Amino acid sequence: MPQILLTPAQRKEHRAQAHHLDPVVMVGGDGLTPSVKKEIDASLNAHGLIKVRIFSDDREARETMFQTLAEELNAAPIQHIGKLLVLWRPMPEKEKSVDEDRMAGPRDFKVLKYSKRAGQRPEVKTLRVLGNQRLTAGGNVKRAKPKPKISLKKRSQT
After folding, report:
1. Which one, 13, 14, 88, 103, has least CB within 10 Å?
2. What residues contact residue 156 under an 8 Å CB cut-off, 6+ apart?
């Protein structure tokens, strides 16, 4: 699999995003074993942008590991600073399972009720809204409007 090629602007953006990340995979003295590659692949699928720490002192070995990971895992090499490698790969789309029988459950909302007297703190209320209810702008819970029924004439036209 070929590695992903990025423009310098895209690479700069990914470097900025990776700045605050911690390494998720650490490569020890055994180097790039199949289990390490599998873990890096799983991390790329889960996060998209990851840091890898390599505990080897040989810079050329780290550089070859960086290129090997990018080529074998179809990832873009973002940055190699010291013993840290930054790799990026677009995250795969997750399939959403849709359950038609599922209804909306209760939701909790925090509502601020302001006092009419000046200087009073607003009262915080937690309201539970069920699936057939809605919250108005004034902070009241109302039942949802029933769905309009389709007439027999319109049903026969479709």
Report:
1. 103
2. none
Amino acid (1-letter code) at residue 117? R
pLDDT digits (tens, 9 = 90+) for 109-152: 888 888 888 788 888 888 888 877 888 887 888 887 776 777 77
Tell if the pTM clears 0.85, that is, is over it: no
**27 close to 55: Cβ distance less than 8 angstroms:** yes
What DSSP letter does each residue of 3-44 carry, written as one string? PPP--HHHHHHHHHHHTTPPPSEEE-TT-S-HHHHHHHHHHH
- With a CB cutoff of 8 Å and minimum separation 6, the contacts of 75 are 3, 4, 44, 69, 87, 88, 89
Which pLDDT band holds residue 1 (cuts at 50, 70, 90)?
Answer: low
CATH topology of domain 8-88: Translation Initiation Factor IF3 (3.30.110)
Where exactly does CATH 3.30.110.60 map onto the chain? 8-88
At 14-44, the pLDDT tens digits run 999 999 999 999 999 888 999 999 999 999 9
User: Reduced to 3 states, what is the DSSP secondary structure of residue 53?
Assistant: strand
Token pair listed for 103: 């209804």
How far, in Å, are 149, 152, 153 from residue 158 at the CA level? Answer: 14, 10, 9
